[in-house]
Amino acid sequence: MVELKKEISSTTYPGRGIIIGKSADGKKAVIGYFIMGRSENSRNRVFVKEGKDLKTQAFDPSKLVDPSLIIYAPVRTLENQTIVTNGDQTDTVRDFIFEGKTFEEALRTRTFEPDPPNFTPRISGIVELADNDFSYKLSILKSNEGREEFALRFFYEYAQPVAGEGHFIHTYKQDGNPIPSFEGEPTLVDIEGDIDTFTKNIWESLNEDNKVSLYTRFIDLTTGEFEDRIVNKNQ
Q: 124 to each of 13, 23, 113, 138, how far by Cα in Å?
């Protein structure tokens, strides 16, 4: 296990990232999702709540160039499940679940983003509450060494979360041109403190020039109720 703050700050551009785990007191399911940007279009975003869901929107609509890959719902809340992704595959997963299908079945119909030469991976997670506890899954869909015609799909299942531990997956290994995709399994990280500590640790660890927005959620394992936080660089 590595320190979450240190892992996030180890590169200037991890891209978009998902952290899922269990709070240190063992009472909450923990979710974090952040976005970063290098271009003006990518940086021109904020997170906004829509009911129990989360959406991205343009901070300055007059500067919005191409909404296709930057405007989406990162978080969808179902009865006992929370979906978090870095693109419109959030809705693909939701729709498949409504049809009685699975997280994996949904993502097998999707691939990486059509943004050559980076071919940004699609990262996704789902939290499912049951019996005063929860399980979670993570996934990454990426190109095979930057080759557009080959998609790789990886799925990771965590059936017995441990208090104070979680997993972190992000789109990019580091900055570059083209930007190299994340490699390996999701990183085992510590989950420290309450929601405000968790939020602060992530936000302060992200590169100041490239960070855009952060969303965090703590879900009570007994009641299913949640509290959340949003931090936007654009105010």
A: 18, 20, 13, 6
